[in-house]
Design a protein that fits this description.
two-stranded antiparallel ribbon, about 300 residues, 13 strands, TIM Barrel, nine-stranded mixed sheet, Alpha-Beta Plaits, alpha/beta
Length: about 300
C-alpha cells in the first residue's frame, strides 16, 4: 500500500503558506498546545469528530444508534459527544443525515496525496508556487513527510515545510536536501512565557533555528502577532535581536492573529483560552514592523 500518514485537510490555492499559489497539506499531530492555535483539529494525532450542533435534526437519533462506544447523547442544544469515550471511528458521521457530525483526520498514502496536489501543478508553474506541508506539526511524521517531499521533487514541484521546530534536529537533517523553504514559527524568546502559553520549553526550538541558519537552509521566520500576548515592544525587540544574531539573515513575517479558529474550538469541545483577544489594528501592525525592521531585517506583514 505504501507509506501512510495522517492528515486533516488539503487546501487548494493557498496564498499565505509560502510564495506563489500553493497547495497546503495539513498533517495531524502537534507537540505544542499554543493558546492561540488556529488549527486545533490538528493537535491530536488521531481522528476526531467535530460537532455542528446547529445542524442537528430535532428528534433524530441516528448517530446514537450507530455509535459502538455509546459516546453520544442528546441535549436541548443538540448532540453532545463524550470525547473520553469516542475513538473517532466515524460510524456516527456515516449515520448522520444532516452532516451535523464530521470527521477530521484520515489515513492516506503518499500516492493519494500526490493524486490531489498534482492537479494544481499548472498553477505552481505560473505563479512560482508549490506545495507546503503544514499541520499540526508535519515533522512529527518524518517518514511520511520525507516520501512526500521526494515525490514532489520527482514532479519538479517546489516544496515548503511549515514547522514550529519542536523536534530533534536529526529530523531536519534528513529533509534539508529535499525542502525548498522552511517556514519557521518563532513565538517567544522568553522560555517561561513560552512554556506557559505553548506547554513546552523553547530551547530546542531556538537551537534548531540556529542550526538551520548555520546550515544555510532557506528560511522564512514567522512570528504570530497576538495582542496582549507577544506584541509588546520588549517581546518584539527580543525576537528581532535573536533573528538578527542568526548566522544568516532571513526574512521575518508578522502573522496577525485572527479569530477564525473559534468555531473549530466549539466543534471540538475545547474551551477558548483567549476569548477576549481581538486581531491587531493596522497601526499596531505597522509599529511592530518598524520595531523588528530596526534590526536590519526585512519584514513583511502576513505570508
Amino acid at each position: 500500500m505504501g507509506t501512510q500518514g495522517m492528515i486533516f485537510d488539503i487546501k487548494k490555492f493557498a496564498v499565505h503558506d509560502g510564495p506563489g499559489i500553493r497547495t497546503t497539506v495539513f498533517l495531524k499531530g502537534c507537540s505544542l498546545r499554543c493558546a492561540w492555535c488556529h488549527n486545533p483539529e490538528g493537535l491530536s494525532a488521531q481522528p476526531e469528530i467535530m460537532v455542528f450542533a446547529s445542524r442537528c435534526l430535532p428528534g433524530c437519533r441516528a448517530c446514537l444508534a450507530a455509535c459502538p462506544q455509546v459516546a453520544l447523547r442528546r441535549s436541548r442544544s443538540g448532540i453532545v459527544l463524550d470525547r473520553a469515550r469516542c475513538d473517532g471511528c466515524g460510524a456516527c458521521v456515516q449515520a448522520c443525515p444532516a452532516e451535523a457530525l464530521q470527521a477530521t483526520g484520515r489515513a492516506v498514502t503518499v500516492a493519494q496525496v500526490m493524486e490531489e496536489i498534482i492537479k494544481d501543478k499548472p498553477f505552481y508553474e505560473e505563479s512560482s508556487g508549490g506545495v507546503t506541508f503544514s499541520g499540526g506539526e508535519p515533522m512529527l511524521q518524518p517518514k511520511f513527510l520525507k516520501e512526500l517531499l521526494r515525490a514532489c521533487r520527482r514532479q519538479g514541484m517546489a516544496t515548503a515545510i511549515d514547522t514550529a521546530g519542536h523536534v530533534p534536529f536529526a529530523s531536519f537533517a534528513g529533509l534539508l536536501p529535499l525542502t525548498g523553504l522552511f517556514l519557521y514559527d518563532l513565538k517567544f524568546i522568553d522560555p517561561k512565557r513560552h512554556q506557559r502559553l505553548t506547554g513546552a520549553d523553547n530551547r530546542l526550538i531556538l537551537e534548531n533555528l540556529k542550526k538551520l541558519s548555520r546550515a544555510g537552509a532557506p528560511l522564512a521566520i514567522r512570528i504570530p502577532l497576538i495582542p496582549g500576548v507577544n506584541d509588546a515592544p520588549r517581546d518584539l525587540q527580543q525576537a528581532a535581536a535573536f533573528c538578527a544574531a542568526l548566522p544568516h539573515r532571513h526574512p521575518v513575517h508578522l502573522l496577525p492573529y485572527h479569530r477564525g479558529y473559534a468555531g473549530k474550538l466549539a466543534r471540538l469541545g475545547i474551551a477558548a483560552t483567549l476569548p477576549a483577544t481581538r486581531p491587531p489594528a493596522r497601526a499596531a501592525l505597522n509599529r511592530a514592523r518598524e520595531i523588528v525592521a530596526r534590526h536590519d531585517l526585512t519584514v513583511f506583514i502576513g505570508g
